[in-house]
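User: Write out your own:

AI:
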Amino acid sequence: MTDIPRRRDPERRRREIIAAAAEIVLEDGPDALTHRKVAARAGVPLGSTTQYFATLDDLRAAALTSLVVDAERWLGELEAEFVREGASPAAYTASLHRYLEDTRLVGADFAVTCSAPLHPDLRMLAVRWEADFLTMLERYITTESAAAVSMLTDGAIMQTALSEKPSERTLLDRAIAALWTPRQETTP
């Protein structure tokens, strides 16, 4: 009996390499990446990692970008909830607390935030995500309130990453409620 050779699928292999790199970033941090570690984790030859990602910076950027996708999904779900049930401090806090309970999301956020100052391409990724976050919030609350909620959110994520436990829900409820100023609708 002979093994059927695996059909070449370059895009699949690239995704496997990125997924392996993302897992290493979450476990050991972005600076722990090496082509050799990623190849071993992905179960691919070392040459495959360098074929798709010539530099570690390229590989790191791809891994961190893939991790941001989950945060973008959370943002989309948050806005869908706002549309469905109304934008309120309670709705935001509930969603934020779910985010903080997801160790993968928190780890990804922490990794991107800590890497951004050192890598210009990652800085642009982090700045773009922050702008998207603020734009979404500003559809429902004032610009000043959105900036304050964003800062508090970043702090809650960092605190959760460092303490390995989500911020206390009642404290988040009070803090978000204090910062939340709904956008006033204007009539023509």
Remarks:
- Residues 10-179 form a domain with the Tetracycline Repressor; domain 2 fold (CATH 1.10.357.10).
- The mean pLDDT is 92.
- Residues 23 and 63 are 8 Å apart (CA to CA).
